[in-house]
Amino acid sequence: MFLKNWWYVAGWSHQVTPGEIVARTIVGDSIILYRAGSGGIAAPRDLCCHRFAPLSRGRIEGDDIRCMYHGLKFSASGACVEIPSTDKIPAGVAVRSYPVLEQDRWIWVWMGDPARADPALIPRAIGHGDPAYVVNTGELHYDANYQLIHDNLLDLTHLSYVHEKTLGRNNSAWGRTQPDFTPLDHGVRVKRWLRDTPAASYAPMPDGTKVDQWSACDFVVPGVFLLRSSGYPVGTAERFPDGPAGLEPLYETVTSQAVTPVTETSTIYYYSGGQPARQAAEAKLRLQIEMFGVAFREDKDMIEAQQKIIDASGGDAMMTLSFDRSVAQFRRLMAKLIEADGSASR
Question: Which of 136, 205, 270, 326 is the S-S candidate for 289 at Cβ 3.0 to 4.6 Å?
């Protein structure tokens, strides 16, 4: 089941260049993205209404897209503006066009009822396009259901085990620490201290430095992960158990990640890694995004293995444990929104 009436990340702004047509499938629907002559992005359905030829094999002409089967031309809004074989365009000759916006280097497409496309529902990525941060980007394709990736991002205790030698830093702190959990209108907030733990290898600190690390994450509909991690002198967590309360950190790292369902068993995962420009060093930034790539492939291996077991299990139910509160809360929220979608979801 999918939530249709929401904004989904369809790619990075730099992936849609003038003159190029990019095909995407999001929540089971095939669309194309192209940059019109005016510079804005159009997102029509990847289907000519005439004989169902793919518009991804079409040609961009100014703001329009021409089907290269029989030559019908459609505006960015989806209206047919030309049929070469006739001067008359019959009523109803059009293709669906999806609302699309660019924000924070991501392309967002509204996959449901266009009348409900509220830009205020788009979350702000951390550091994307902000001169105060330096950010690198990546993406990964999963052969797995999107909700398994949600579960993974909502329960970071797995860092100590799946990522033992990468993000877990050969330390059991993530697995031993219970986070604080706060429901949000469209998601959940998860915060925690890791006490006396090794600083990230990509942080601007000497190797082996121990810190108290504060991590604060918002995970919001339809599957967007926004995390800030900051290091402080050991002992800070003892003095400020509810959070660093505006203290200046030794370092900060940020990541914004978006989970975009393709089909019921395939997903695209867009991610970034960055640091404040004032502390960023090229080698550390390169190490950060490279480590993310390695670690997220570790997630991919585990989650795709999960999917294979689920496919073969015959409907066995997963168990829920005490530290799964954020996972359970977000699954309930998504189920409620999908149910409210009615016929717009499938």
Answer: 136
